[in-house]
Protein backbone atom coordinates (compact mmCIF):
# COMPACT_ATOMS: atom_id res chain seq x y z
CA UNK A 1 0.00 0.00 0.00
CA UNK A 2 1.39 3.40 -0.99
CA UNK A 3 1.60 6.32 1.36
CA UNK A 4 0.81 9.84 0.15
CA UNK A 5 1.26 13.11 1.96
CA UNK A 6 -1.87 14.58 0.38
CA UNK A 7 -4.64 13.84 -2.12
CA UNK A 8 -2.94 15.83 -4.89
CA UNK A 9 0.10 13.55 -4.78
CA UNK A 10 -2.16 10.52 -4.79
CA UNK A 11 -4.16 11.78 -7.78
CA UNK A 12 -0.97 12.55 -9.72
CA UNK A 13 0.47 9.10 -9.01
CA UNK A 14 -2.70 7.34 -10.11
CA UNK A 15 -3.06 9.53 -13.20
CA UNK A 16 0.51 8.74 -14.24
CA UNK A 17 -0.11 5.03 -13.73
CA UNK A 18 -3.30 5.16 -15.79
CA UNK A 19 -1.58 7.18 -18.51
CA UNK A 20 1.07 4.50 -18.85
CA UNK A 21 -1.67 1.98 -19.65
CA UNK A 22 -3.20 4.12 -22.41
CA UNK A 23 -1.97 3.78 -25.97
CA UNK A 24 -0.10 0.53 -25.23
CA UNK A 25 0.31 -0.42 -28.84
CA UNK A 26 2.89 -0.21 -31.57
CA UNK A 27 3.10 0.89 -35.17
CA UNK A 28 4.79 -2.07 -36.83
CA UNK A 29 5.32 -5.80 -36.47
CA UNK A 30 2.15 -7.27 -37.95
CA UNK A 31 3.55 -8.53 -41.24
CA UNK A 32 3.70 -12.15 -40.14
CA UNK A 33 0.19 -12.28 -38.74
CA UNK A 34 -1.78 -14.51 -41.10
CA UNK A 35 -4.81 -12.82 -42.72
CA UNK A 36 -4.05 -9.46 -41.10
CA UNK A 37 -4.58 -7.46 -44.29
CA UNK A 38 -7.81 -9.32 -44.96
CA UNK A 39 -9.08 -8.48 -41.48
CA UNK A 40 -8.12 -4.81 -41.79
CA UNK A 41 -9.73 -4.51 -45.23
CA UNK A 42 -13.04 -5.89 -43.98
CA UNK A 43 -12.96 -3.59 -40.96
CA UNK A 44 -12.31 -0.59 -43.20
CA UNK A 45 -15.54 -1.35 -45.01
CA UNK A 46 -17.46 -1.34 -41.72
CA UNK A 47 -15.70 1.82 -40.56
CA UNK A 48 -16.55 3.63 -43.84
CA UNK A 49 -13.92 6.28 -43.25
CA UNK A 50 -15.21 8.48 -46.08
CA UNK A 51 -18.43 9.06 -44.13
CA UNK A 52 -18.63 12.13 -41.90
CA UNK A 53 -20.94 10.42 -39.40
CA UNK A 54 -19.66 9.32 -36.01
CA UNK A 55 -19.59 5.56 -36.21
CA UNK A 56 -19.14 2.77 -33.67
CA UNK A 57 -17.89 -0.64 -34.75
CA UNK A 58 -17.51 -3.81 -32.72
CA UNK A 59 -14.86 -6.51 -33.04
CA UNK A 60 -16.20 -9.75 -31.61
CA UNK A 61 -14.72 -13.22 -31.22
CA UNK A 62 -13.51 -15.83 -28.73
CA UNK A 63 -10.50 -15.37 -26.51
CA UNK A 64 -7.17 -16.24 -28.11
CA UNK A 65 -8.32 -15.68 -31.69
CA UNK A 66 -6.22 -12.56 -32.34
CA UNK A 67 -8.65 -9.65 -31.84
CA UNK A 68 -6.02 -7.48 -30.17
CA UNK A 69 -3.44 -8.06 -32.90
CA UNK A 70 -6.02 -7.10 -35.51
CA UNK A 71 -6.94 -3.96 -33.54
CA UNK A 72 -3.29 -2.95 -33.20
CA UNK A 73 -2.78 -3.34 -36.93
CA UNK A 74 -5.92 -1.30 -37.60
CA UNK A 75 -4.76 1.41 -35.22
CA UNK A 76 -1.35 1.51 -36.86
CA UNK A 77 -2.79 1.99 -40.32
CA UNK A 78 -5.48 4.55 -39.44
CA UNK A 79 -3.97 6.75 -36.74
CA UNK A 80 -2.59 9.35 -39.18
CA UNK A 81 -6.12 10.07 -40.47
CA UNK A 82 -7.37 11.42 -37.13
CA UNK A 83 -6.62 14.47 -35.00
CA UNK A 84 -6.53 12.46 -31.77
CA UNK A 85 -6.12 8.73 -31.31
CA UNK A 86 -6.18 6.47 -28.28
CA UNK A 87 -5.89 2.71 -27.80
CA UNK A 88 -7.09 1.59 -24.38
CA UNK A 89 -6.63 -1.89 -22.95
CA UNK A 90 -9.55 -2.08 -20.53
CA UNK A 91 -8.42 -5.30 -18.88
CA UNK A 92 -5.98 -3.57 -16.54
CA UNK A 93 -8.90 -1.65 -15.01
CA UNK A 94 -11.12 -4.71 -14.64
CA UNK A 95 -8.49 -7.02 -13.22
CA UNK A 96 -6.60 -4.81 -10.81
CA UNK A 97 -7.76 -4.30 -7.19
CA UNK A 98 -7.86 -0.50 -7.48
CA UNK A 99 -9.75 1.57 -4.96
CA UNK A 100 -13.23 2.83 -5.86
CA UNK A 101 -12.03 6.18 -7.19
CA UNK A 102 -9.72 4.62 -9.77
CA UNK A 103 -12.54 4.60 -12.31
CA UNK A 104 -12.87 8.38 -12.06
CA UNK A 105 -9.12 8.80 -12.40
CA UNK A 106 -9.20 6.57 -15.45
CA UNK A 107 -11.92 8.70 -17.04
CA UNK A 108 -9.97 11.82 -16.17
CA UNK A 109 -6.81 10.59 -17.84
CA UNK A 110 -8.78 9.26 -20.80
CA UNK A 111 -10.31 12.68 -21.42
CA UNK A 112 -6.93 14.31 -20.99
CA UNK A 113 -5.51 12.10 -23.73
CA UNK A 114 -8.43 12.60 -26.12
CA UNK A 115 -8.63 16.34 -25.61
CA UNK A 116 -4.88 16.92 -25.53
CA UNK A 117 -5.07 18.48 -22.08
CA UNK A 118 -2.54 17.77 -19.35
CA UNK A 119 -5.25 17.28 -16.74
CA UNK A 120 -9.02 17.40 -17.00
CA UNK A 121 -11.42 16.98 -14.13
CA UNK A 122 -14.48 14.78 -14.63
CA UNK A 123 -17.73 15.96 -13.14
CA UNK A 124 -21.34 16.57 -14.10
CA UNK A 125 -20.74 20.33 -14.20
CA UNK A 126 -17.97 19.80 -16.75
CA UNK A 127 -19.91 17.63 -19.21
CA UNK A 128 -21.14 20.54 -21.35
CA UNK A 129 -17.60 21.81 -21.69
CA UNK A 130 -16.38 18.30 -22.56
CA UNK A 131 -19.05 17.98 -25.24
CA UNK A 132 -18.12 21.29 -26.84
CA UNK A 133 -14.42 20.41 -26.86
CA UNK A 134 -14.95 16.93 -28.28
CA UNK A 135 -17.05 18.26 -31.17
CA UNK A 136 -13.91 19.94 -32.49
CA UNK A 137 -11.95 16.67 -32.58
CA UNK A 138 -11.96 13.89 -35.20
CA UNK A 139 -10.91 11.00 -32.95
CA UNK A 140 -10.13 7.32 -33.24
CA UNK A 141 -10.81 5.44 -30.02
CA UNK A 142 -10.15 1.72 -29.69
CA UNK A 143 -11.32 0.03 -26.48
CA UNK A 144 -9.81 -3.43 -26.18
CA UNK A 145 -10.95 -6.31 -23.99
CA UNK A 146 -14.22 -4.68 -22.90
CA UNK A 147 -16.51 -6.74 -20.70
CA UNK A 148 -19.57 -6.07 -18.59
CA UNK A 149 -17.98 -6.13 -15.13
CA UNK A 150 -17.83 -2.34 -14.86
CA UNK A 151 -19.52 0.03 -17.29
CA UNK A 152 -16.69 2.50 -17.68
CA UNK A 153 -16.94 5.37 -20.18
CA UNK A 154 -20.69 4.87 -20.56
CA UNK A 155 -21.29 8.54 -21.19
CA UNK A 156 -18.53 8.85 -23.78
CA UNK A 157 -19.45 5.69 -25.65
CA UNK A 158 -23.20 6.21 -25.67
CA UNK A 159 -23.11 9.91 -26.56
CA UNK A 160 -21.52 9.51 -29.99
CA UNK A 161 -22.88 12.90 -31.06
CA UNK A 162 -20.31 14.43 -28.73
CA UNK A 163 -17.44 13.54 -31.04
CA UNK A 164 -16.34 15.49 -34.10
CA UNK A 165 -17.46 14.53 -37.61
CA UNK A 166 -15.81 11.40 -38.93
CA UNK A 167 -14.84 10.07 -35.49
CA UNK A 168 -14.66 6.31 -35.01
CA UNK A 169 -15.01 4.22 -31.84
CA UNK A 170 -14.02 0.54 -31.97
CA UNK A 171 -15.10 -1.74 -29.12
CA UNK A 172 -13.44 -5.16 -28.83
CA UNK A 173 -15.12 -7.87 -26.77
CA UNK A 174 -16.04 -11.54 -26.43
CA UNK A 175 -19.62 -10.56 -25.55
CA UNK A 176 -21.87 -9.70 -28.49
CA UNK A 177 -24.65 -8.86 -26.02
CA UNK A 178 -22.51 -5.99 -24.71
CA UNK A 179 -22.17 -4.57 -28.22
CA UNK A 180 -25.92 -4.81 -28.79
CA UNK A 181 -26.62 -3.13 -25.47
CA UNK A 182 -24.65 -0.10 -26.72
CA UNK A 183 -26.58 -0.16 -29.99
CA UNK A 184 -23.51 -1.22 -31.97
CA UNK A 185 -24.84 -3.09 -34.98
CA UNK A 186 -21.77 -2.88 -37.23
CA UNK A 187 -19.88 -5.89 -35.89
CA UNK A 188 -16.88 -7.71 -37.31
CA UNK A 189 -16.74 -11.33 -36.19
CA UNK A 190 -13.22 -12.76 -36.05
CA UNK A 191 -13.67 -16.40 -36.93
CA UNK A 192 -11.19 -19.24 -36.74
CA UNK A 193 -8.64 -19.46 -39.54
CA UNK A 194 -9.09 -22.12 -42.20
CA UNK A 195 -7.05 -25.30 -41.95
CA UNK A 196 -4.58 -23.91 -44.49
CA UNK A 197 -4.25 -20.61 -42.63
CA UNK A 198 -3.91 -22.37 -39.27
CA UNK A 199 -1.12 -24.55 -40.63
CA UNK A 200 0.66 -21.48 -41.98
CA UNK A 201 0.31 -19.71 -38.62
CA UNK A 202 1.62 -22.76 -36.78
CA UNK A 203 4.58 -23.15 -39.16
CA UNK A 204 5.55 -19.50 -38.80
CA UNK A 205 5.77 -20.04 -35.06
CA UNK A 206 7.49 -23.44 -35.17
CA UNK A 207 9.73 -23.17 -38.25
CA UNK A 208 9.81 -19.44 -39.11
CA UNK A 209 8.39 -20.29 -42.53
CA UNK A 210 4.97 -20.85 -44.10
CA UNK A 211 5.21 -24.62 -44.64
CA UNK A 212 6.57 -27.57 -42.66
CA UNK A 213 10.01 -28.92 -43.61
CA UNK A 214 10.39 -32.39 -45.08
CA UNK A 215 9.05 -35.10 -42.80
CA UNK A 216 6.90 -32.77 -40.66
CA UNK A 217 3.87 -32.13 -42.87
CA UNK A 218 1.60 -34.87 -41.53
CA UNK A 219 2.38 -34.30 -37.85
CA UNK A 220 2.11 -30.50 -38.22
CA UNK A 221 -1.35 -30.82 -39.76
CA UNK A 222 -2.45 -33.12 -36.93
CA UNK A 223 -1.18 -30.76 -34.25
CA UNK A 224 -2.93 -27.74 -35.82
CA UNK A 225 -6.19 -29.70 -35.99
CA UNK A 226 -5.80 -30.90 -32.40
CA UNK A 227 -5.40 -27.30 -31.21
CA UNK A 228 -8.69 -26.48 -32.91
CA UNK A 229 -7.05 -23.87 -35.17
CA UNK A 230 -7.06 -21.35 -32.29
CA UNK A 231 -4.30 -18.79 -33.05
CA UNK A 232 -3.03 -18.43 -29.48
CA UNK A 233 -2.68 -22.21 -29.16
CA UNK A 234 -1.01 -22.47 -32.56
CA UNK A 235 1.55 -19.81 -31.67
CA UNK A 236 2.31 -21.07 -28.16
CA UNK A 237 2.56 -24.72 -29.17
CA UNK A 238 4.53 -23.87 -32.31
CA UNK A 239 7.09 -21.98 -30.24
CA UNK A 240 7.38 -24.95 -27.91
CA UNK A 241 7.71 -27.66 -30.58
CA UNK A 242 10.04 -25.80 -32.93
CA UNK A 243 13.43 -27.52 -33.06
CA UNK A 244 12.27 -30.67 -31.29
CA UNK A 245 12.36 -34.25 -32.55
CA UNK A 246 9.24 -35.81 -34.08
CA UNK A 247 9.05 -38.27 -31.16
CA UNK A 248 8.40 -35.32 -28.85
CA UNK A 249 5.76 -34.00 -31.24
CA UNK A 250 3.97 -37.35 -31.15
CA UNK A 251 4.06 -37.39 -27.35
CA UNK A 252 2.57 -33.88 -27.09
CA UNK A 253 -0.05 -34.66 -29.72
CA UNK A 254 -1.15 -37.70 -27.70
CA UNK A 255 -1.47 -35.60 -24.55
CA UNK A 256 -3.61 -32.99 -26.33
CA UNK A 257 -5.90 -35.57 -27.89
CA UNK A 258 -6.33 -37.32 -24.53
CA UNK A 259 -7.39 -34.05 -22.92
CA UNK A 260 -11.14 -34.00 -23.63
CA UNK A 261 -11.71 -30.84 -21.59
CA UNK A 262 -9.58 -27.80 -21.00
CA UNK A 263 -7.64 -28.19 -24.24
CA UNK A 264 -6.26 -24.66 -24.11
CA UNK A 265 -5.19 -25.14 -20.50
CA UNK A 266 -3.47 -28.34 -21.56
CA UNK A 267 -1.53 -26.47 -24.25
CA UNK A 268 -0.49 -23.75 -21.81
CA UNK A 269 0.51 -26.40 -19.25
CA UNK A 270 2.70 -28.21 -21.77
CA UNK A 271 4.37 -24.96 -22.77
CA UNK A 272 4.85 -23.84 -19.15
CA UNK A 273 6.33 -27.19 -18.12
CA UNK A 274 8.74 -26.90 -21.05
CA UNK A 275 10.47 -23.97 -19.37
CA UNK A 276 13.60 -25.79 -18.28
CA UNK A 277 14.97 -22.83 -16.35
CA UNK A 278 13.26 -22.39 -12.99
CA UNK A 279 13.91 -18.65 -13.07
CA UNK A 280 11.91 -18.35 -16.30
CA UNK A 281 8.94 -19.85 -14.48
CA UNK A 282 9.40 -17.45 -11.58
CA UNK A 283 9.36 -14.42 -13.89
CA UNK A 284 6.37 -15.85 -15.77
CA UNK A 285 4.38 -16.00 -12.52
CA UNK A 286 5.53 -12.50 -11.54
CA UNK A 287 4.15 -11.13 -14.81
CA UNK A 288 0.91 -13.11 -14.55
CA UNK A 289 0.20 -12.02 -10.98
CA UNK A 290 1.74 -8.57 -10.68
CA UNK A 291 3.32 -6.93 -13.70
CA UNK A 292 1.19 -7.39 -16.80
CA UNK A 293 1.18 -4.08 -18.75
CA UNK A 294 4.12 -2.67 -16.82
CA UNK A 295 7.41 -1.71 -18.48
CA UNK A 296 10.59 -3.75 -18.71
CA UNK A 297 12.38 -0.92 -16.95
CA UNK A 298 9.90 -0.88 -14.07
CA UNK A 299 9.94 -4.66 -13.56
CA UNK A 300 13.73 -4.79 -13.81
CA UNK A 301 14.05 -2.05 -11.20
CA UNK A 302 11.66 -3.72 -8.74
CA UNK A 303 13.38 -7.10 -9.09
CA UNK A 304 16.93 -5.75 -9.17
CA UNK A 305 17.82 -7.54 -5.91
CA UNK A 306 16.28 -10.88 -6.92
CA UNK A 307 19.33 -12.25 -8.82
CA UNK A 308 16.97 -13.42 -11.57
CA UNK A 309 18.62 -11.78 -14.62
CA UNK A 310 15.26 -10.20 -15.33
CA UNK A 311 16.03 -8.74 -18.77
CA UNK A 312 17.33 -12.08 -20.06
CA UNK A 313 14.33 -13.93 -18.61
CA UNK A 314 11.87 -11.50 -20.18
CA UNK A 315 13.61 -11.88 -23.53
CA UNK A 316 13.43 -15.66 -23.19
CA UNK A 317 9.70 -15.57 -22.39
CA UNK A 318 9.06 -13.26 -25.34
CA UNK A 319 10.94 -15.58 -27.69
CA UNK A 320 8.76 -18.46 -26.51
CA UNK A 321 5.54 -16.41 -27.03
CA UNK A 322 4.63 -16.32 -23.33
CA UNK A 323 4.70 -12.53 -23.35
CA UNK A 324 5.02 -9.73 -25.86
CA UNK A 325 7.27 -6.69 -25.39
CA UNK A 326 6.11 -3.64 -27.31
CA UNK A 327 8.45 -1.24 -29.07
CA UNK A 328 8.02 1.28 -26.25
CA UNK A 329 9.00 -1.30 -23.63
CA UNK A 330 5.69 -2.52 -22.21
CA UNK A 331 5.20 -6.15 -21.24
CA UNK A 332 1.88 -7.66 -22.29
CA UNK A 333 0.65 -11.16 -21.52
CA UNK A 334 -2.53 -12.60 -23.03
CA UNK A 335 -5.20 -12.91 -20.35
CA UNK A 336 -5.48 -16.67 -20.93
CA UNK A 337 -1.80 -16.93 -20.08
CA UNK A 338 -2.31 -14.58 -17.15
CA UNK A 339 -5.24 -16.56 -15.77
CA UNK A 340 -3.28 -19.79 -16.16
CA UNK A 341 -0.32 -18.37 -14.23
CA UNK A 342 -2.57 -17.14 -11.46
CA UNK A 343 -4.20 -20.56 -11.26
CA UNK A 344 -0.77 -22.14 -10.78
CA UNK A 345 -0.18 -19.85 -7.81
CA UNK A 346 -3.68 -20.49 -6.41
CA UNK A 347 -3.08 -24.23 -6.54
CA UNK A 348 0.01 -23.84 -4.36
CA UNK A 349 -2.40 -23.69 -1.44
CA UNK A 350 -6.08 -23.69 -2.39
CA UNK A 351 -7.52 -23.51 1.11
CA UNK A 352 -4.77 -21.47 2.80
CA UNK A 353 -4.16 -18.35 0.68
CA UNK A 354 -1.53 -17.05 3.08
CA UNK A 355 0.82 -19.85 2.00
CA UNK A 356 0.88 -18.76 -1.65
CA UNK A 357 3.75 -16.73 -3.05
CA UNK A 358 1.34 -14.08 -4.47
CA UNK A 359 -2.14 -12.90 -3.61
CA UNK A 360 -4.17 -11.24 -6.38
CA UNK A 361 -7.79 -11.89 -5.40
CA UNK A 362 -9.29 -9.25 -3.11
CA UNK A 363 -11.31 -11.80 -1.11
CA UNK A 364 -8.23 -13.94 -0.49
CA UNK A 365 -6.29 -10.87 0.62
CA UNK A 366 -9.09 -9.89 3.00
CA UNK A 367 -9.22 -13.41 4.45
CA UNK A 368 -5.48 -13.39 5.08
CA UNK A 369 -5.65 -10.08 6.95
CA UNK A 370 -8.75 -11.02 8.92
CA UNK A 371 -7.32 -14.38 9.93
CA UNK A 372 -3.84 -12.93 10.48
CA UNK A 373 -2.33 -15.67 8.32
UniProtKB/TrEMBL annotation:
The keyword NAD applies. It comes from the Eukaryota. Residues 53-194 form the AAA+ ATPase domain. PANTHER family: ADP-RIBOSYL CYCLASE_CYCLIC ADP-RIBOSE HYDROLASE, LEUCINE-RICH REPEAT-CONTAINING PROTEIN. Coiled coil: none annotated. The keyword NAD applies. This is AAA+ ATPase domain-containing protein. Pfam families: NB-ARC (PF00931), WHD_ROQ1 (PF23282). Keywords: Leucine-rich repeat, NAD, Repeat. InterPro entries: AAA+_ATPase (IPR003593), Apaf_helical (IPR042197), Disease_R_plants (IPR044974), NB-ARC (IPR002182), P-loop_NTPase (IPR027417), WH_DNA-bd_sf (IPR036390), WHD_ROQ1-like (IPR058192). It comes from Brassica cretica.
